[in-house]
Amino acid sequence: MSDVLQISTEKFDARFPNVNQTKRCWQNYFDYTKCVAAKGEDYAPCKQFLKAYTTLCPNEWIERWDAQKDDGTLPIITSS
């Protein structure tokens, strides 16, 4: 039997009550990037940020941000 992909909506985040979810999308992408830089991709809490931004953000945005991150033009500081 094949694996079943379970799709769910991201839970409420009190940091973003009653607002457009664009900021929440970006914040989760930013938090994931910082978390992976600090702890690595296998660190479980980082996966929550990954799930959140992949659920909230349009794929085109993610692809553009990933390309900018690879080019070094994304305005995120990934090292301390």
UniProtKB/TrEMBL annotation:
Keywords: Disulfide bond, Mitochondrion
Disulfide bond residue pairs: C25-C57, C35-C46
PROSITE patterns referenced in this protein's UniProt entry, alphabetically: CHCH
Intracellular or extracellular location(s): Mitochondrion
Top-level taxon: Eukaryota
Predominant location category: mitochondrion
SUPFAM superfamilies on file: Cytochrome c oxidase subunit h (SSF47694)
CDD domains: Cyt_c_Oxidase_VIb
Role: Component of the cytochrome c oxidase, the last enzyme in the mitochondrial electron transport chain which drives oxidative phosphorylation.
Name of the protein: Cytochrome c oxidase subunit
Organism: Coemansia spiralis
